[in-house]
Amino acid sequence: MASDARNVPKDTTINCDICIVGGGAAGITLAKALIGKSYQVVLLESGGIQAADELTNSLRDGENIGLPYFPIKDLTNRALGGNTSRWANFIVPFDDIDFEKRDWVPYSGWPFTRETLMPYYEPANKLCGIEDFNYDPHELAARIGDPIFRPLPLDPQRIETKMWRFYLPPLNFKTAYFAEIEQAPNIETYLYANVVDIQVNDAVKQVERIKVAAINDNQFWVSSRVFILAMGGIEIPRLLLASNQVQSSGLGNQYDLVGRFYQEHPHFYRSAIVLIPEPDQYPALYTWEAMTFHQVLAGLTPAPALQAKEQILNGSVELANAVNPWGSSLFADGFLNHVQSVLSDLRSLSARGLRNARFRDWFNLRTYRRPVLEFHPRMEQAPNPDSRITLSSEKDMLGLPRIRLDWRLNDLDRRSLHRFNEVIAEEIGKAGIGRVRIEYTETDTPWPPPWQEPDGPSSMGGWHYMGATRMHDDPKQGVVDADCRVHGLSNLYISSSSVFPTGSFANPTLTIVALALRMVEHLDDRLRTQTL
Amino acid sequence: MNRRMLLRLTPLFAVSLAAPQFWHLLHAPTPMMSKLERQVYQKLHHLFRHVSSAKAIGAEYLRNKPQSLDAQMLLASLSASCELQSLVRMDDVTLRNWLIQRQQQDFAEGKTVRVNGWVLSQTEVELYTLLALT
């Protein structure tokens, strides 16, 4: 059943076994997995079923004092479904190495291996709309059956091909699963319900209740055996920091960790370009053509051996057709044409054949294939305690301090991108596919380069908010433990990418959903056997 | 123009068409080159339909190169793994394949050179520079 929080009798207390705060991918996954169980569940969503009204949206604004980033008010979507109502449905699991402690990546290492998450990846994959858990590039390419869609023959000890899967059109978790949740007798959903405070007992060992406010000045309380924060990687640290009546630094923040280690997947548009003179070498599997027509997309990633040898981060490069390569100012010096000409000469491709290929490609509106493609890297970010979310002195209309975001990258981020580009360039040359021109240099300033699309290099995040309530067995190094329970608080859990200690190259949603499924199993065991 | 005049002009016209193809033979190699080096140079030159492009890349490399280079040094480097006599005996296809293989080997060994942002193999840059120097 779904109710409107604006109509709940003021100052009443709703009792339940499990209270989920947030109705996005994590919250809906949790609620769906709890359907039919013997627990009374309350799901609180700040927005409504459709896109939020202007007043509700005003709650999410904040300030940015760090790297150029998306407007803070656009980071979250206050409506059922959360950011799945506007995502691109990129699905891919993390690598083994993403869970490991890497000596060259400070603060790396999850409290468990990928093996722990594997039983949950497969059902999570289905929830994200992909029936089979298959990410083998050769098998997925074989399904397409067109040789132009094939993994590039690069040295797997240096550069691997990873695959994304897609459900198109992107799957909105609200549309797919909320009807089922709404009909579940053990789940009550409250819309327009904004959590503004978490109240703990005097010993700061247990959450007693949370305060819910609606934008019409209504307010009420929810008391529960277990609380799960699932409002996303921005709002969760905000609420923990703001809930500071008993613990002045905020809940879970006894070691000043809440809000720190904020990570993104830095996106760098056109960090390099690759010239591929022979049309039959065109890497279609790595372009949006594969995504659009075959619901897969390949990316080049640094092999684990390369990451260790070069001491760099994980990452991925998608190849995108250059927009108007000969018309762009980047190529005005004609140097691209010189490189293209000599490559063609040595490969015995006639000038006439090349001109024809260019002509055909220019006017081939079906595929937009071009002999020049851009690197679009999406990098793992180095965990960095100075990259952080804090509270602003400004408050929203419900009295909750707004967030202040200070997103930062460091030298490891810079070196990783640079060396990754270089190794791909070497491998593409070695395989005889073409030549790469690197657009960034390691000494470029400012770095990362400012947003300049479409006519120059640029950088931005990927709408992936990770790390600000990181997971670690040691409370001095993490906000939550391996079960995603906030250290020191027996009944407060976090289900979000904010618990990721490191962010991989992979888009976070599949891993968020897998962690949520794992959490339900953990809670099921715990609630059956322990008194909270 | 009558027919006799046309016949007289025809050889001149043919020479004018063919001359650019052999222009490099007249002035290209440096005087210091041996006959063998000159033959190798000519074979390499012959591989390119777009000599001006190769020269442009070589010139760009030279522009940012701190130390001086000459054609003989470049030829010596190019022929490090294959004697000049062998190179001269190669037909165009074999020579082209040998160069491609060397370039790929360079990439495998990290012997790359950055020219105007492009990551090129040492072999190809030496080749283009040789053409630019002469």
Verbal overview:
The complex is a heterodimer of chains A (532) and B (134). With 532 residues, chain A is of the alpha/beta class. Chain A is 26% helix and 20% strand. In chain A, strands 1, 2, 3, 6, 7, 8, 9 and 19 form an 8-stranded mixed β-sheet that branches. In chain A, strands 13-14-11-17 form a 4-stranded antiparallel β-sheet. In chain A, strands 4-16-15 form a 3-stranded mixed β-sheet, with helices on one face. In chain A, a hairpin with a 6-residue loop joins β7 and β8 (207-213). Chain B is mainly α and 134 residues long. Chain B is built from 7 helices and 2 strands; from the N terminus they run ααααααββα. In chain B, α3 crosses α7 (122-133) and α4 (71-78) runs antiparallel to α7 (122-133). Classes of the chains: A alpha/beta (532), B mainly alpha (134). Chain A binds chain B through residues 333-335, 337-339, 341-342, 344-348, 350-351, 422, 425-427, 429-432, 435-439, and chain B through 47-50, 53-54, 56-57, 60, 93, 96, 99-100, 103-104, 106-108, 110, 112, 114, 116-121, 124, 128.
SS-based class of chain B: mainly alpha
Q: What value does the Rg of chain B take, in angstroms?
A: 18 Å
Morphology of chain A: elongated
Task: Look at the structure and give the mean pLDDT of chain B.
Answer: 82
Q: How much of the residues of chain A is beta strand, in percent?
A: 15-25%
Reading side by side through the largest sheet of chain B, how are the strands ordered?
A: 1-2
Helix percent band of chain B: 55-70%
Number of strands of chain B: 2
Tell me the span between the first and last alpha carbons of chain A. 26 Å
Amount of helix of chain A: 25-40%
Number of strands of chain A: 19
Uncertain ranges of chain B? 22-29
Rounded radius of gyration of chain A (Å): 24 Å
- Give me the secondary-structure category of chain A: alpha/beta
